[in-house]
Amino acid sequence: MTDAASTWCQFAAALSREDLTAAGDFIVSGRRLSGGGRSDALATVEQLRAAASRHGAGRGATALRWALEHLRVGVDSPQETRLRLTLVEHGFAEPVIGLPVLVDHGTLVLHPDLAWPELRLVLEYEGDEHRENKRRFRADIRRREKFEAAGWRAELAR
């Protein structure tokens, strides 16, 4: 068995640079827990850098270097990574990942997928689960309404 950082480097020969970045984001982010906290990450960005350095010029080295520059901590899904990369590639400013936003008159903190605080704009990625699950769909509507009531513009991406 290998550690997460070494395994990530081994994937570099088979994954696109965007998918490698999404995998790296997962490794350095851990999972979001209820209440806004996160589980421990599988590795740090520094550990991924060290593993990529050990990997040297092996297959996928160019993708590893690209992915290392695009890794972000706090990402919740591969789709969120791909959306962020696409937006930045097309000229959008780099968004803040998981920005704590006070809603409900300061009594609740939400963490949108992507945010541009200077624009008071949040962007939430919603896959099929968000649309097909009635409970999730209603919760997403309430979530969007909370952002908007707090003075933020909330947009959805699918």
| Portion in helices | 40-55%
Order of helices and strands: HHHHHEEEEEHHE
The Cα radius of gyration reads 17 Å
Question: Helical segment tally?
Answer: 7
Which sheet architecture does the biggest sheet show?
A: 4 strands, mixed
Give the domain tally. Answer: 2
Low-confidence stretches: none
Strand order of the largest sheet: 1-4-5-6
User: What percent strand?
Assistant: 5-15%
Measure the end-to-end span: 36 Å
Class by alpha and beta content: alpha+beta
Number of strands: 6
In round numbers, the mean pLDDT is 93
Give the overall shape: elongated
Put the structure in a nutshell.
The chain is α+β, with helices and mostly antiparallel strands.
Describe the structure.
The N and C termini lie far apart (36 Å). Helix 3 packs antiparallel against helix 4 (61-70). 47% of the residues lie in helices and 13% in strands. The chain folds into two domains: 4-74, no CATH class; 96-157, no CATH class. The longest helix has 16 residues, at 134-149. The chain is elongated. The mean pLDDT is 93. It is of the alpha+beta class and 158 residues long. The strands form two sheets. Strands 1-4-5-6 form a four-stranded mixed beta sheet. It has helices at residues 4-11, 17-29, 45-55, 61-70, 78-89, 128-132, 134-149, and strands spanning 96-97, 101-103, 108-110, 114-116, 121-125, 153-157.
Primary descriptors:
alpha+beta; 2 domains; four-stranded mixed sheet; two-stranded antiparallel ribbon; 47% helix
Task: Furnish the topology, listing elements before pairings.
Blueprint: H1 4-11, H2 17-29, H3 45-55, H4 61-70, H5 78-89, E1 96-97, E2 101-103, E3 108-110, E4 114-116, E5 121-125, H6 128-132, H7 134-149, E6 153-157
Parallel strand pairs: 5-6
Antiparallel strand pairs: 1-4, 2-3, 4-5
Helix pairs in contact: 1-2, 1-3, 2-4, 2-5, 3-4
